[in-house]
Write a structure and sequence with these properties.
By secondary structure, the protein is mostly beta strands. It has one domain: Porin, CATH 2.40.160. 11% of the residues lie in helices and 61% in strands. The protein is built from one helix and ten strands, in the order αββββββββββ. Strands 1-2-3-4-5-7-9-10 form an eight-stranded antiparallel beta barrel. A hairpin with a 7-residue loop joins strand 4 and strand 5. The longest helix is centred in the first third of the chain and has 20 residues.
């Protein structure tokens, strides 16, 4: 009983490449990507973030509009988990620079500061709204992409105080399916 089900699943997996190549122009292009870089929220009461790696899923609509979500593990300012959502646009073709609006949530350790105006350390996650530019982004015919040196800035808050949010993507490699 288990062997026929396994055979059906393997057969369906073998058909996926032919279905992906038969997609109509302007349809969705899904990809999985790995990223490495720096991300931080630098509020007056605490700093969260660091250097790390992550994995994400991206959907490109009509070879122009980008929707993506990723999760990263960061270290240097503590052990931090980051979840990012982004939406933006890209230029079509081999050289595909992109601009995205991002929402980030950082959870975990932080470097805290106490002053007379901030007597207690804030608890919980830190959030950020920002813009990311990817000028050195290159995509192949099938939708797989490589991006180097993505720059992002924004407004971050730890829900007690607010400050700048910075992101620098050192390398991102995506594989379309």
């Amino acid at each position: 009983m288990k062997a026929p089900v396994l055979g059906l699943l393997l057969g369906a997996l073998c058909l996926l490449p032919s279905l992906a190549s038969a997609r109509e122009p302007g349809a969705h292009q899904l990809s999985v990507y790995l990223r490495g870089g720096v991300s931080a929220v630098l509020a007056p009461s605490r700093a969260m973030g660091g250097l790390g790696v992550g994995v994400g899923v991206r959907d490109v609509l009509k070879d122009r509009f980008i929707l993506q979500a990723d999760a990263s593990y960061l270290t240097l300012l503590g052990h931090v988990g980051e979840v990012r959502l982004g939406a933006g646009v890209q230029r079509g073709g081999t050289w595909s620079p992109a601009a995205l609006a991002t929402v980030s949530l950082l959870m975990g350790d932080a470097l805290t500061t106490r002053t007379e105006t901030i007597p207690r350390s804030p608890r919980g996650p830190a959030g950020a709204l920002g813009v990311t530019l990817a000028p050195l982004r290159f995509c192949m015919e099938g939708g797989s992409c490589v991006s180097v040196l993505e720059l992002g800035v924004g407004y971050g808050t730890d829900f007690a105080t607010a400050g700048p949010s910075l992101q620098v993507g050192l390398m991102e490699m995506g594989l379309a399916f």
